[in-house]
Amino acid sequence: MIHDWDTHFWMARVPSEEWEEWISAEDHGSHEPIFQTANKIRIEPITTLSAQAILEAEVPDGYTAFLRTDRIEIVMKGPDAASGPKLIYVMALEKGHWDDPGRVALSTVPLKDGFRAELRIFPDGHGEVDFNSSDNFICEVTNMGECDLYRFIKV
Amino acid sequence: MSVHIRRYYGSGPSEVDISGGANPIGLKLKTYDGDSNETYLFNATHPVPKPTFGNKHSFTATIALYSDVLGSEIYSDPKIYSGGVPAVPNPNPNGYVAWTGAQIFVADDTDDTYVQAAGVQDDSGTEMVAQGLTSSKTDLLATYNASNMKSVGLVGGVDTIGPLTSAQRISKYVRVQGTLGTTCSAGSTVLVTIYMRYSVTS
Q1: Mutate to test the interface with B, among A73, A100, A108 (most CBs of B within 10 A)
Q2: Which of A19, A37, A55, A95 has the fewest Cβ atoms within 10 Å of its own Cβ atom?
Q3: How many alpha carbons lie under 13 Å from residue B112 in its C-beta half-sphere?
Q4: Is A2 among the domain residues?
Q5: A79 to chain B, closest Cα gap in Å
Q6: Is residue A89 less than 8 Å (CB to CB) from chain B?
Q7: Where in the sequence is the domain holding A126, given as residue range(s)?
Q8: Structural domain tally of chain A?
Q9: Does A98 fall in a domain?
């Protein structure tokens, strides 16, 4: 589901007899079983006004993908409130199997063999990417003109 | 339809959304907690007096995440954190005072049972541990930040909740209380930022 407050959305490549089949947040939720078959996942900007960053990862056999959108509400608003992110797109991979990964709290999944990537969207619209991993995943950044592609790769 | 932070107050409890919208109310800590909007309005009524000895406290405020998004979202990992202790701005046209001698505590325990804050109106709230609202507490501004958030827990202690069939509180109750010591300065402290963060399965 894409919300009116979203700046980015996910896409996932799933096995198909066709050359290539992609599903996306436009028609699916990442808690649906079809998402668990994905072998490549991406988080992409919705418009040219969104922070121009793409996150992408292949899903190796034996790994589970998790997608979350973290939202931030303000309890007390000081002058520094505008300097914190308002929205964070989370992409995570972890080795192992979860029956229903869309209904797992990511905080209960220790980072042992996988990665966590965050695309943080700030009130002024700019974005920043943060990446943490076990030692067998790396992040490669490619500038594609108007957009930066962050690829998370198992090495 | 959205997720907001809701403040619970008075004996009922009564409820009010304090985040979201064009002009969010925010959280005001006072020496009052009754079934009236005086409990939460962002004005100068019912301030916490500067103590001549020991401490004075605000009445403990109770907040939680509340959602009226039906049929679609799965929630997890609610957390609370702050932007830290702010410095006095320069220039300082509003005459804010530093946080010396002033703290905001968050209860270490979160739960699903509402208890109205106790205290003596316009003098001091009952300290949250003494009232039995929590077994211990932590200095929110000094301890919890974007790199070290406090986990709050979902209502009922589940790992995830949703999609919802009716609007409801989705996190456990979080309790916060302002505390002043004798070294504090009279006046309004520099505005602080406190956040709540939660995950939605995309």
Answers
A1: A73
A2: A19
A3: 11
A4: no
A5: 7
A6: yes
A7: 8-154
A8: 1
A9: yes
